[in-house]
Design a protein that fits this description.
The model is unreliable at about 1-10 and about 600-605 (pLDDT under 50). Among the domains are: about 1-35 and about 90-165, no CATH class; about 345-445, DD-peptidase/beta-lactamase superfamily (Beta-lactamase); about 590-680, Immunoglobulin-like, CATH 2.60.40.10. It is built from 21 helices and 20 strands. It is α+β, with helices and mostly antiparallel strands. The protein has a 5-stranded antiparallel beta sheet with strand order 7-6-12-11-10, with helices on both faces. A 5-stranded mixed beta sheet has the order 14-20-19-16-17, with no helix packed on it. A 3-stranded mixed beta sheet has the order 2-1-5, with helices on one face. InterPro entries: Beta-lactam/transpept-like, Glyco_trans_51, Glycosyltr_51/Transpeptidase, Lysozyme-like_dom_sf, PBP_1c, PBP_C, PBP_transglycosylase, PCN-bd_Tpept. Its EC number is 2.4.99.28. This is peptidoglycan glycosyltransferase. In the C-terminal section; belongs to the transpeptidase family. In the N-terminal section; belongs to the glycosyltransferase 51 family.
């Protein structure tokens, strides 16, 4: 026997026996005086999806993967195998097992060397949390004392949790849950006998048995555990034979890194949280990340792409992809392009048309002139440089013409448009701080996420819920942008756009956009439940020659809907008050759009609605509303929430039926096309 080989075992045995025979009071005092090391070690911060599935974990400060785990989250068969192999009297001893010490000393005397250790699982926990030595008698003595103290202060379940959290499994892997992800790519809830046996064997010698470096040693150690389990009757012969034939893993698997950019944001917002439960669906998120990786495969090494998918009824973010590859340096994959401020191109046009519908300035069947026009020094042009003359508003939006929408924006005023954007929750970046007419064509900065929020409001009848990514943190209801009737009209127009080849028609209301210089290609669309936004371009803002939203981003948008769910959910029917007529049936002022000097509120000589005043609250009890007018030229038309309720009126007091309880927008239009508008609350 090598000199001193069994010495530490005799010492341990003597200690155990001595403690047993010593004065109870002295032993208790010695154990109670033990100063324990900290038992609450740092574990990896995690982001989880809406079903509790791991999206991403972050290494602890020293580069260790150490994921929090409890015995209840672990396969019971593994726990049983672990206790039978390492410490079969774990549930009954008080930290030190005298029988195990006697066995270890006897084997050392007979064999002249250490054959098995006498350490209990609690003693191993004591060593792990102190990172102490395993062999020298002083270290073993300290482990015994700490183990006895741990047993007095913690439950067996808490001690087992410490082992499951701290046990080494090779390299920078600590704890069972980190090990199951690293070696098998899954949670520890369900383990095969072969997997469980390997995980029992690895902590005994985690470096020499690392499967990726020494598969033979790993297999041999695993097989010894399986053989003992079979001998103990814990495994049937056939089950053990099948486990022995199973291969051992030969490489560490990467840890999940889904929704990496969103996880970074959530962690930065709440740095004290160890777990962030998100509204994201891991299955959908993974599908979207694969889609975007495919989308840029042939688009050049510097092109990136981002996507946000949202349930517009709840505001919950279902998927958020900031780049096609988080670690791709050439594509600047570390940049979260869902949060990057970019020019929206034509994506604000639907809002402008919706505001015009709501203000009584136009209707989808209204004729508007597409021809040369100048506003001061600003002369907008269509993307193809051509003019189409008189064209229906519906067609102008579907063809994304620039001149008609700028005409409407000039009448509405840039301030009204930006105010509506801000009511949607968007954070705007306006060059020079003062909006101009160029905002209608993308002359401001906005993020993809905020654009998706805007379209979510359009999908929800003009008033949406703020987007949210934290599970259980419902988004706040934003202010009303436009009426439900105007929102439906916009959606109906966008649903009539021709989809990309092979995609179904009429099921998604969508809009594409391309920013100036081909720097950004966009596509955003919604069905009856979800809205998805896609951006493509270069993160550094340099042009992508020939990039158009319709060519690049629209096919990705429709493919994303296909991967989000089976089939599409129907767009809503028109609200009851929606005016659905032909151009010839429109009130005269709506048949043709007139410019600002003829049709904007109460300009000089124009009509003015003097009663009820804007913002008034009227208690009518179901009775009619009396409108009082000043100025303008008869006949007059009255719209209530976008619906004509009086036409051809000659007098300056007009009585209309109350449009219903709650807030209503009343618009009066005179013969020349001038208009006046108020919003009132009716009780």
């Amino acid at each position: 026997m090598p000199e001193g080989a069994p010495h530490r075992w005799f010492f341990g045995l003597a200690l155990a026996l001595g403690l047993a025979g010593a004065s109870r009071d002295a032993a208790d005092a010695w154990i109670d005086a033990t100063v324990l090391p900290p038992v609450l070690a740092e574990t990896s911060v995690e982001t989880r999806d809406r079903n509790g599935q791991l999206l991403r974990a972050y290494q602890v400060g020293n580069g260790i993967w150490r994921l929090a785990v409890t015995p209840a989250e672990v396969d019971a068969a593994y726990v049983g195998m672990l206790l039978r192999y390492e410490d079969k009297r774990f549930l009954t001893h008080q930290g030190v097992d005298p029988l195990a010490l006697l066995r270890a000393v006897g084997q050392a005397v007979v064999n002249g060397d250490t054959v098995s250790g006498g350490s209990t699982l609690t003693m191993q926990v004591a060593r792990l949390i102190e990172d102490g030595p395993t062999g020298r008698w002083a270290g073993k003595l300290r482990q015994m004392r700490v183990a006895l103290a741990l047993e007095r202060r913690l439950s067996k379940d808490e001690i087992l949790r410490l082992y499951l959290t701290h046990a080494p499994f090779g390299g920078n892997i600590e704890g069972l849950r980190a090990a199951t992800f690293a070696w098998f790519g899954k949670e520890p809830r369900r383990l095969t006998p072969a997997e469980a046996a390997l995980l029992v064997a690895l902590p005994q010698s985690p470096e020499t048995r690392r499967p990726d470096r020494n598969a033979a040693a790993a297999r041999a150690a695993r097989d010894r555990v399986l053989a003992r389990s079979a001998a103990q009757g814990a495994l049937e012969a056939g089950e053990a034979a099948a486990a022995l034939r199973s291969p051992v893993p030969t490489a560490m698997r990467p840890f999940p890194q889904l929704a990496a950019h969103l996880g970074d944001r959530m962690r930065a917002e709440a740095p004290d949280l160890a777990r962030h439960d998100l509204t994201v669906d891991a299955t959908v998120q993974a599908a979207m990340e694969r889609l975007l990786a495919e989308a840029v495969r042939g688009a050049g090494p510097r092109v990136s792409v981002a996507l946000v998918a949202v349930d517009h009824q709840t505001g919950e973010i279902i998927a958020s992809v900031g780049s096609p590859a988080y670690a791709a340096e050439a594509r600047e994959g570390y940049v979260d392009m869902t949060q990057a401020v970019r020019s929206p191109g034509s994506l604000l046009k639907p809002l402008i048309y919706g505001l015009a519908f709501d203000q009584g300035l136009a209707h989808p069947e209204t004729l508007i002139h597409d021809g040369p026009v100048t506003f001061g020094r600003y002369a907008p042009r269509n993307f193809d440089g051509q003019f189409r003359g008189d064209i229906r508003v519906r067609e102008a939006l579907q063809q994304s013409l620039n001149i008609p929408v700028v005409r409407l924006a000039e009448v509405l005023g840039p301030a009204r448009i930006t105010a509506a954007l801000e009511r949607s929750g968007a954070r705007l970046h306006i060059p020079g701080g003062k909006p101009g007419l160029a905002i209608a064509l993308g002359g401001l900065g906005i993020t993809l996420e905020d654009l998706v929020q805007l379209y979510a409001a359009l999908a929800e009848g003009g008033q949406g819920v703020g987007l949210n990514a934290r599970l259980g943190a419902a988004g706040a209801l934003h202010q009303k942008l436009i009426s439900p009737e105007a929102a439906w009209q916009v959606g109906h127009i966008l649903a009539g756009l021709t989809p990309p080849p092979g995609a179904p028609s009429g099921v998604v209301a969508y809009k594409t956009g391309t920013s100036y210089g081909h720097r950004d290609a966009w596509a955003i669309g919604y069905d009856g439940r979800h809205v998805i936004g896609v951006w493509m371009g270069r993160p550094d803002g340099t042009p992508v020659p020939g990039a158009f939203g319709g060519d690049l981003a629209a096919p990705v948008l429709f493919d994303a809907f296909g991967r989000l769910k089976q089939g599409f959910e129907r767009l809503p029917p028109p609200p009851p008050a929606t005016l659905i007529v032909t151009a010839a049936e429109l009130p005269l002022p709506l048949q043709r759009f007139r410019p600002r000097d003829a049709a904007f509120e109460a300009a000089a000589g124009g009509v003015e609605l003097t009663f009820p005043p804007d913002g008034a609250r009227l208690a009518l009890g179901g009775g009619p509303v009396t409108l009082k007018l000043r100025g303008g030229a008869a006949p007059f038309s009255v719209l209530a929430n976008g619906r004509p309720v009086a036409t051809g009126a000659q007098g300056r007091e007009i009585e209309i039926a109350a449009p219903g309880r709650g807030f209503s927008t009343l618009v009066v239009i005179d013969r020349a096309g001038s208009s006046s508008r108020v919003t009132v609350q009716l009780d």
